[in-house]
Write a structure and sequence with these properties.
single chain, 12 helices, 5 strands, five-stranded parallel sheet, about 260 residues, alpha/beta, binds iron/sulfur cluster
Length: about 260
C-alpha cells in the first residue's frame, strides 16, 4: 500500500557525520518523527534511496568534490523543501579553512598519495550552489531545532529561526557572563542563539559554532578581546574557526589581518 506520509531524506556531503548522529541520538523525538514521516534516504539509519523524490531534504556537509556539486543539484531537483543541518552545510564548516591556502599544499601535507584524490579547491555551503529554504546552524545541530522545523512544516507553518545573539540565552538562563566575570574570551556576543548557552553553562566561552547572529558587531567584540590581552592574530583565529567561511566572520578575520 502506498504511504501518504511526507517523505524525508537525510543526505551526507563532506562532514564528520556528527549532525546525522545527533539526529540518531534524538531518542523518543526521532521515534515520534518516524511515525509522522517516511524516511526514504538516511544512510546512517539504514534507508538508502538517494534518487527518490522527497518533501523535506535535510542536508549535512559541505560541497568539496566535483561529485558533490552534481549531487546537490540532483537532490535539490527532487526536493520540495531543503534544509541545511549544521555548520558544514550552512557555512562550509571547519574544512573551509582550506579555502585560505592552495588545496594542493593541504593534500600533500596530509595524504601519502594525493594524486588519487579528486577535490575542489574550496569547501562551500549549500546555498552557494542551490536554493536553500532554511538554514540550521550548529556543530552539531540542536536536534530540538530540527524537530521543531519539521513539525512546523508538517503543520503548514513556515519555520523560523531566531537570530539574536547567544548573550540573550545566557541572560535568560541567569548565567554569569564568563567574559565579564572571568575575563574569558567569548564569541557569544556575535553568535546566533540556539544551543541553549551550552558552553557558558559549563563555565567556558562560546566559540561560535552556531554562526553569526543578526547584525553581529564584530569590531566591538574584537576591541573587547584586545582589551583582554589577545593579539590581532589570536582574535583573527577566534573568527576563523568552525564558521570561518560565514561572511561576517570572514570580514572580521580579514580586518584583523590588516591591523
Ligand atoms: S556541522 Fe559539525 S557535527 Fe555537523 S557534520 Fe559538520 S563537523 Fe560534524
Ligand atoms: S556556546 Fe557557542 S560554541 Fe558552545 S555550543 Fe553554543 S554556540 Fe556552540
Amino acid at each position: 500500500m502506498k504511504s501518504h506520509k511526507p517523505r524525508v531524506g537525510v543526505y551526507k556531503f563532506t562532514s564528520c557525520d556528527g549532525c546525522q548522529l545527533a539526529l540518531l541520538n534524538a531518542g523518543q523525538a526521532l521515534i515520534t518523527l518516524a511515525e509522522l514521516v517516511e524516511f526514504v534516504h538516511f544512510a546512517e539509519a539504514g534507508f538508502v534511496d538517494e534518487s527518490a523524490p522527497v518533501d523535506i531534504a535535510l542536508v549535512e556537509g559541505s560541497v568539496s568534490t566535483p561529485q558533490e556539486l552534481k549531487r546537490i543539484q540532483q537532490i535539490r531537483a527532487h526536493s520540495q523543501y531543503l534544509i541545511t543541518i549544521g555548520a558544514c552545510a550552512t557555512a562550509g564548516g571547519l574544512q573551509a579553512l582550506r579555502n585560505y591556502q592552495h588545496v594542493d599544499q593541504w593534500m600533500q601535507s596530509i595524504y601519502a598519495s594525493p594524486q588519487h584524490i579528486q577535490t575542489l579547491a574550496t569547501s562551500t555551503s549549500m546555498s552557494e550552489h542551490v536554493k536553500v529554504d532554511l538554514e540550521l546552524w550548529g556543530c552539531p545541530i540542536n536536534t530540538q531545532q530540527v524537530m521543531r522545523a519539521i513539525r512546523d512544516l508538517l503543520s503548514g507553518v513556515a519555520p523560523r529561526i531566531v537570530a539574536d545573539s547567544e548573550c540573550l540565552e545566557c541572560k535568560r538562563r541567569n548565567l554569569v557572563c564568563v567574559m565579564v566575570a572571568k575575563g574569558q574570551p567569548c564569541m557569544g556576543p556575535v553568535t546566533k542563539m540556539g544551543c541553549g548557552a551550552l558552553c557558558p553553562s559549563a563555565g567556558r566561552g562560546c566559540y561560535a559554532c552556531y554562526g553569526p547572529s543578526e547584525n553581529p558587531n564584530t569590531s566591538a567584540l574584537s576591541n573587547r578581546l584586545a582589551g583582554l590581552g589577545l593579539l590581532p592574530q589570536n582574535i583573527a583565529d577566534k573568527f576563523r574557526h568552525i564558521n570561518n567561511h560565514a561572511a561576517p566572520f570572514e570580514q572580521a578575520t580579514h580586518a584583523k589581518k590588516h591591523d
